[in-house]
Amino acid sequence: MTFTPTELEVEGAAGGEAVREGAAAPPARGRHLVRAFLRDRAAVACSVYILLIVLTALAAPLLVKLSGYGPLEFDQDAVDPNLGGIPLGAAGGMGADHWFGVEPGNGRDIFARIVYGARVSMLIAISATVLTGVLGVVFGLVAGYFGGRVDMVVSRVMEFLMAFPALIFMIAVLSALPAENRQVLLVLVISFFGWPYLARIVRGQTMSLKEREFVEAAKASGATSAQIIFKEILPNLTSTIIVMTTLAVPGYVGTEAGLSFLGVGVVPPTPSWGQMIASSVPWYAVDPAYFLIPGSFLFLLVLSFTVLGDRIRKLLGEGAA
């Protein structure tokens, strides 16, 4: 169904009230949101840091060539075997050869493992977010639009998964499965427990939108259920989906890091920030930099996604007001 300029309805980030605007409303609203976003220093700073991590992950092979050491290379000359493998030099061995220092005991370059760990963390988090988004949106739309038994079945499944102790299940399953394709398994397990949270919100907004006039008009014009769901209702949920997926990424980054910290996530020697933090536990007292560097990268990435998602939610909500 095609809207005329006087019938255009714009949905808020929370699926709020529709407002009528002229033909120039979408571009004007878009420009307003962009200007408001650029004026928000926190949102811009978070976006810059996230973009930096993404570029770092993509350019990891090139950056490692520039630094001179790969993530699996050992530099025994950078540690002192007489002191149990403590890095030589200040701040964990930071210097021209090793920009972020080296790992105690084995001498692996921390910078190389940080940039490759960024690739692993972002790949798992973004893949899980995409899969979770697809499942959540589809099941939420179907349950909200059709209602009845379909809604009952989907809702009971969502309630069961949301009430289930997800972390315990993840640890148990990943511990029992082989180490091969562990990154794929992490994405599947995280997504399995993650989609109900988005689906519940999409379901609720779909139940409200399906009673609106433009949906009734589409039905009267002979549109199929699939056309109504994906061409009429789904576009009105775009803002909500963007906010929810943005807020989901930091949770998945933290989940991957937590599982790797517990030893059931990414399998060594594949670099992972959570795995590096776990390895740094015995070295807190003698080499705090080994913990602080991956810990800081992880903290700032989770914080950036969280703040960015919250800022986007507020901006979209204000733009719809």
From TrEMBL:
Residues 118-309 form the ABC transmembrane type-1 domain. Pfam families: BPD_transp_1, OppC_N. It is a multi-pass membrane protein. The chain crosses the membrane at residues 42-64, 122-148, 160-178, 184-202, 233-253, 289-308. It comes from the Bacteria. It is found in: Cell membrane. Keywords: Cell membrane, Membrane, Transmembrane, Transmembrane helix, Transport. Its main location: membrane. Belongs to the binding-protein-dependent transport system permease family. This is ABC transporter permease. It comes from Glycomyces niveus. The lineage of its organism: Bacteria, Bacillati, Actinomycetota, Actinomycetes, Glycomycetales.
